[in-house]
Amino acid sequence: MSEGNQEQQEQNQQSQGGGPLDGVTEQVGQVAQGAQETAGQAVDQASQAAEGLAPGTELLSETTNEAGQTVQRTVDQTGNVVENTLDESGNLLDETPLGSITDLPAEEEYTNEEGQTVRTVKDESGTLISLQLGEDGSLLNLQIPPPTETEEATEESSSSYESGPQEEEQPEDQEQEEGLQDLSQQVQEQTVNSAQDFFGESLGRLKGQLQDERTQFESLAEQVPDEEAQAQIQEMVDAYESLESSLDQSAEDLGLTEDVNQALQQAQETAGQVTEQAGQAAQGAQDTVGGVAQQAQQAAGGQQQEEA
Predict the structure, then answer these.
(1) How far apart are CA 144 and CA 237, in angstroms?
(2) Which of 101, 117, 150, 192 is 20 to 30 Å from the Cα of 246, by its Cα?
(3) Using CA of residue 194, residue 195, residue 199, residue 202, what is the dihedral sign?
(4) Closest of 79, 61, 83 to residue 141, by C-alpha
(5) Residue 244 · residue 203 · CB < 8 Å
(6) Could you give the CA distance from residue 145 to residue 59 in angstroms, rounded to a whole number?
(7) Do the beta carbons of residue 83 and residue 98 sit within 8 Å?
């Protein structure tokens, strides 16, 4: 073969898609893909056979009833949901149709580029199912979430279980912290209450003293005949009244008006008792002096009689 013919043949092979080698590679890829699909179908069929399911049926949930029987909730490719009851040997005891998977409420829904509706629904067992619906609402395909999502749910459940003791310890620590906070709050409240009581009593005593001294100045002003002196004393009385007014305003701002009035009343009662006791003591002294004087007079009269 001449060099020109050989080059022409190579160019023709390249223009036809890279030559016989590329064709073989493409065929190998198709065969491999077909083998994977066949293997996947075989795995699905083996899994269904192991679970006792009919071909084309997927398991949604499996539980055990009170009689110890296995209850399987399944869905087929047409979307029919069925509940099967099996005995211990796996024999079918009862089969109950539950409706269509498309009747379940949608958890999520959108339209893909091909105009098909992709909807995610949740079965009563809690299993999520992805549905692909045609424009007329017919079921084109359904898929159960892959095992990875189930594993994540299992890990979350395991994590929650492992954190159980920690959650039991946390309330104890939380109770201790709350106990300290409550104690601190009680101490603060007692301190504030004590300070308010003391301040209220102090204002009450001070108000009583101001009132007593103002009364004395008012009495003094009445006794002074000079008008200029009376005016000066009245200014002092007005100053006392201003101090009393400021004191009352402070007590009202602090919410201690009642405490101040109680302290004032107690101080007045105490002052009244002291005054009464002083009066009784003075009366007693006068009575004693009178008795001594009378005895002295009687003694003097008796002495005079003897001398006579």
Answers:
(1) 95
(2) 192
(3) positive
(4) 79
(5) no
(6) 12
(7) yes
Q: Which tens digits make up the pLDDT trace of 222-261?
A: 888 888 888 888 888 899 888 888 888 888 888 888 888 8
Per the prediction, the chain carries an average pLDDT of 74
d(CA 129, CA 141): 10
Whether 31 shows a pLDDT value over 80: the answer reads no
Among 18-22, 74-78, 167-171, 228-232, name the one with the lowest average pLDDT: 18-22
Closest CA relative to residue 61, chosen from 79, 81, 34? 81
93 neighbors 75 (Cβ within 8 angstroms) = no
Percent of the chain with pLDDT over 90: 0
What the block records as the tokens of 290 is 């009178």
